Amino acid sequence: MTQPSPAPARRTDREDTAFTAARPRLFAIAYRMLGSRADAEDVLQDAWMRWHQTDQTALQSAEAWLVTVVTRLSIDRLRAAKAEREAYVGWWLPEPLVEPESSAPTPEAAVELAGDLSMALLWVLERLSPEERAAFLMRQVFDQDYAEIAALLGKTEAACRQMVHRASDRVQQERPRFDVAPDAHRDLLERFAEASRTGQRDAIRALLADDAQLVGDGGGKVPSFMRIIQDAGQITKIYCELVRAMGEVRYVHARVNGEPGLLRYVNGTLESAQSFVIENGRIVAIYVVRNPDKLAHIGIGA
User: Fold this and answer.
1) Mind listing the domains of the chain with CATH numbers?
2) What Gene3D superfamilies does the entry give (predicted)?
3) Full-model pTM
4) Using CA of residue 85, residue 256, residue 132, residue 212, what is the dihedral sign?
5) Rounded distance, CA 115 to CA 43, Å?
6) For the residues 175-192, what does the mean pLDDT come to?
7) Which of 5-14, 43-52, 205-214 has the weakest average pLDDT?
């Protein structure tokens, strides 16, 4: 008589707990690599499946193994996404991570938001190759040593040092040069929101640097800017005209990618998430995400 096959071994609670404990860090890596909450969640799902197909008793460090898997999956997904983003209608901006301004981050969110998560940094990282992006993030954000990075990427330490150096030079050239205190950042946005809501042309213009730039992402699904606007006068005109054309406009303060930002509601519906770069008391860059697919997860109401 044929004996029944043994039932597959069940995963233990300890194994599930190990993945759950590492999850905030894994999401932080995947999101910074991909700039997409949805893609990051897909990568974590793939990593979860591989985790459950692996003999975990043979692993020296569960978290190190998971970080390696998530980073490599993110590199592969980013390579595929590069082609998709080249065909994207208009400018591609990262999917924003938004939290209510008044709420304190949960311990898990604190891990996800640790380090620079700003839209400005993610915008610069889009110019790097997937391997350069991974090397830069692992060194500068997650503080891994070069031996760990080399093992993770399958390259020599010397090659990893070169990648981090090139990436750091690029980031230093293009990212904001000065940090702004959160209270000062919020105060400026408060004035900008009020001036924009009421169409105060002179007040808007006074808050913008002369060479301020405006980047919009509608994804071809809603109207947006097909080029980067790099003129304070034109940006002022755009915000004033939007007030006249849109109807009832309301701005809500929120944390957008870990920094003070604004959500704009039009007639009670979320229309955009906006991030700002501030230097010397003026706005030097505005990133406006209008693509409804990238706003669908935001649960902050007007």
Assistant:
1) 13-174 (1.20.140.160), 182-295 (3.10.450.50)
2) 1.10.1740.10, 3.10.450.50, Winged helix-like DNA-binding domain superfamily/Winged helix DNA-binding domain
3) 0.88
4) positive
5) 21
6) 86
7) 5-14
